[in-house]
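The freezer alarm interrupted the setup, so I double-checked each line after restarting. Inputs confirmed:
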Amino acid sequence: MAKSTDLRFLREVLLFKDLAEDEEAAVWASLEERRLRRGDVLFREGDGGKELFFIRSGTVVVSKHVKGRVEQVITRLGPGDFFGEMSLFDDQPRSATIQAEDDTVMYGLDRANLDRLIERNPRAATAFFSQVILVLIKRLRDSTDLVAEVTRWGLEATGLDVERPATGGM
Amino acid sequence: MTTGRARIELLVRSEAGDDFRVTKVESSLAYRQARPQRIPEAQYEVAALRSNVRRSTTYVVKNRLTEKYIELSEAEKFLWDRMNGRTSIEELGVAYVLEFGAFDFDIIHGLIDKLQRAELLTMRPVSRLREVLARNRRNPAARAAEATLRALERLTVGSRSAHEAFARVYRYGAFLIFSPVGVGLLILVTALGAKGTREIWHTGGDIYAGFGQHPVLALVLVKLFFFLTLISHQMLHALALVHYGRRVKEFGFTMLHGFLPTFYADTTDVFMGSRRARIVAGISGPLVHLFLGSLYIYLASECGPGLMKSFLVASAIIQSQSLFFSLYPFCFLEMDGYHVLVDWLGLPRLKSESVAFVRHTLWGRLRSGMRLSREEAVFVGYVVLSTVSIAAFVGLNVWFLVHTT
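Predicted 3D structure, all chains:
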């Protein structure tokens, strides 16, 4: 049974902002709660999985393997944010690793429950997908910025001055 | 617009994999902790060049795979020797301070940049000019410049496998050129040329009379004949390299400065040879003109008046001019004599450094009454002699035009 605080939280999640009250309760019932302690890994890059997660409290770090025990931090996600939508839609392995930076509470929505939502309330489903697209666009922009920043980092770290004409040759 | 040093965030897992830490790494920290590694020893070569003026040594490093060369100062060589993949840039800086007592971080930065461009560390350079032109293809002028460059490149015909051909020529007899036999023959022909010159000088008369009614056409033919002999100049450079066990990287035909047709031999590998090898390779080309000029003038002295005599005398004069221009180092052109001079002085960038010193530093030094160092005196001497030589050359030509027209 959903408490009023649970439903209030659900309304704060952009993905569900257009749900009717009875639908909120139905969606809430279909969500699976997950609790992570600091340092716990929810899933790793390459794992299988078809769930979308949204965070109620705490912070997770999204990272991608670079070499050995080193991974690059792609971003951090906090309360209200969601992740895992890529594998939910394209059936591909997870593209990044998710681990909790603090003790974290989150909820998972799988494909079957999403399909039920789409069937019952197309209007709410449209709002859901609109929000997914907006967030994906933002993440695409962030990724582009990250590529530029990492390139700048590489140039500075190697001392390579690509603006200066060649010197010292004979 | 980004400001400040770039930072990336890395997550490092514990060895057990049950915990992690997140760390922000600034690019400057990464740069200081980078451990530059020179390419494997078998892929490069180092030669020392002792400077008589600076009383110091500079080094030429050659990338054997890419055939790229760079020059290193003693301080840069000190750093290069320590770029073993284990010493960080920060540690290189400390070692430098302990060795030389002072430190400018730009030295390491500049050296790494230079090494990367020569592919002696890792990264490939690009042609800055071509890059800029390609970026500005909308600009008609840039497009035209790029097309011109492409067209000129097409006019260059070269062979990168010329070395084997020269090695065969050398084996089948050209080695004699660099033996006492070759030297003796040159001395003999030069002596005969001197004798022929004296005889023609004393005979007097109009030596061009043999060209008859078409002196201009005849002189054009003399020039064409001379152009054909230019190939022997470059061949001698190439054979000198073979003689000293160095590689002729390329031989061919090109448009010098984009408009002057000429043959060329890539003799840069001689930098890795001894000073004697560099000097012999440098003067062997011009000595072809001494040999041919002397031979022509001697043959002319043996001919009776007529077309052949005039042709030989004109050819000898052009060969003499070429000998002079090839060996005369003071004219702001980097001809063979210039290369011999910079090698002897041990100042590989004599021209550019001299011009820069006179343009930017000399007047301030003169105003403050400070004495010039030995090296600075050489710079000033080079600029003064070159300027006077060019002025004299122009003056002589003007005088000649005024008095012959």
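Quick read of the result. Residues 122-158 of chain A form the longest helix (37 residues).
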